[in-house]
UniProtKB/TrEMBL annotation:
InterPro entries: CFA/CMAS, CMAS, DUF7884, SAM-dependent_MTases_sf. Belongs to the CFA/CMAS family. Residues 18-99 form the DUF7884 domain. It comes from Herbaspirillum seropedicae (strain SmR1). Its EC number is 2.1.1.79. Pfam families: CMAS, DUF7884. This is Cyclopropane-fatty-acyl-phospholipid synthase protein.
């Protein structure tokens, strides 16, 4: 930038800071490359945002969560403070500025999903390294919403309770066949075989998950009861008594949901039960998270991911030939899960830097804490939907939800 341009942007920055101060006092200190600093509140700042070069000013003047997140990930700005405070301050900057500019709408995207593109997206997200995920997940390597039955469980206990909650909901019994679509590192199929006596197939598109899940199955002595496949769900054939899909349908694409559920119906045996456990948008038009959060996640975290509203899930499930039997909202459980993951991530900062680069560290740092924030504030949600083939006799279904909790 020329000196003239810098002076121009500095004046705009002065006006922007003053506008923010007039709206709300933030525990934020802004430090420029020339040593000039601005405090946005009267108290001790919890967050310090450093701008090492004038070229980053434009990111501040349009501080959507996408712009701020990108500037941080790409090293254009530096941020000091606890990550939860950083997320809260970033949201305040974004919401205050965008409200003033009248830009509050949520973007609705349409993504083309092919087997090749979906495989690339999955591998981008999940194949960072298994050692990376071990540093913030629980010992069972479960990368989905936990279930805090009493509210005081540790993460590992809550994740096992989540798996049992799912398997009880679908009434898994010894000798039945189970397909787990998006099996991760194998925790659910391991539990289904060990505790419930099921014969399981788990499919994933992540090479790292596939390799480790197979190792874990072999180490558990369950190779005769569990098969792990590197396979697209669209290519699975056969018939299964029970089907689970946990934290996977976010990658399917909204336009593909009817065919996704139709594939589940095709694979589901007569009299069988399935569960879809996945993140949903709370925008009734299937829009992304507000203030640019969804844009950031699409670019840096989950390429080609799409979140439907729960109404869209139920509609497309019916279009796919399935009847929703039981629906449960676990949003508060995912807020806590992501909060624990974020705390684990912060506590293992040095170890994480040893297994990945600075860019990936920054992406996941703001993603985990930002997700906890989004679930807490109802930007996104999590629903478990148990379903059966449409047209099944009503007399074959349980009369109440008590069967879920008998254990």
């Amino acid at each position: 930038m020329t000196r003239r341009n810098i002076v121009f942007w500095e004046k705009k920055l002065d006006a922007w800071v003053e506008n923010i101060r007039n709206v709300s006092a933030l525990p934020l200190r802004l430090v420029l490359w020339n040593g000039q600093q601005y405090d946005f509140g009267s108290g001790t700042p919890e967050v310090t945002l450093k701008v090492p070069h004038a070229s980053a000013i434009t990111s501040l003047l349009t501080p959507s969560l996408a712009n701020l997140g990108e500037a941080y990930v790409e090293g254009k700005i530096e941020v000091e403070g606890k990550v939860k405070s950083i997320i809260q301050v970033a949201n305040s900057l974004a919401s205050n500025t965008l409200k003033a500019e009248g830009r509050l709408g949520r973007m609705v995207r349409s993504v083309t999903h092919t087997r090749k593109r979906d495989a690339e997206a999955i591998q981008y997200h999940y194949d960072v390294s298994n050692d990376f995920y071990k540093l913030f997940l629980d010992e069972h390597m479960v990368y989905s919403c936990a279930y805090f039955e009493n509210g005081d469980e540790d993460l590992a206990t809550a994740q096992i309770k989540k798996i049992d909650h799912i398997l009880e909901k679908i009434q898994l019994r010894p000798g039945q066949t189970l397909l787990d679509i998006g099996c991760g590192w194998g925790a659910l199929v391991l539990r289904a075989a060990q505790k419930y006596g099921a014969r399981c197939v788990g499919v994933t598109l992540s090479r790292n998950q596939y390799a480790l899940a197979r190792e874990r199955v072999e180490a558990a002595g369950l190779s005769d009861r569990i098969e792990i496949r590197l396979q697209d769900y669209r290519d699975v054939t056969g018939s299964f008594d029970r089907i689970t899909s946990v934290g996977m349908f976010e990658h399917v694409g909204i336009k593909n949901l009817p065919s996704y559920f139709a594939q589940i119906r095709k694979l589901l045996a007569d009299g069988g039960m399935a569960m879809n456990h996945g993140i949903t948008s709370t925008d009734i038009e299937n829009g992304e998270s507000p203030y640019g959060a969804g844009e950031f996640i699409d670019k840096y975290v989950f390429p080609a991911g799409e979140l439907p509203h729960i109404s869209t899930v139920l509609k497309t499930m019916q279009e796919g030939g399935l009847e929703a039997f039981d629906v449960e909202n676990l949003r508060r459980h995912y807020a806590r899960t992501c909060g624990i993951w974020a705390d684990n991530f912060e506590a293992n900062t040095e170890a994480i830097h040893r297994v990945t680069d600075e860019k990936h560290y920054r992406i996941w740092r703001v993603y985990l804490a930002g997700s906890a924030y989004g679930f807490e504030r109802d930007w996104i949600s999590l629903y478990q939907v148990v379903c059966t083939k449409a047209g099944r006799s009503a007399q074959q279904l349980p009369w109440s939800r008590q069967y879920i909790y008998r254990r």
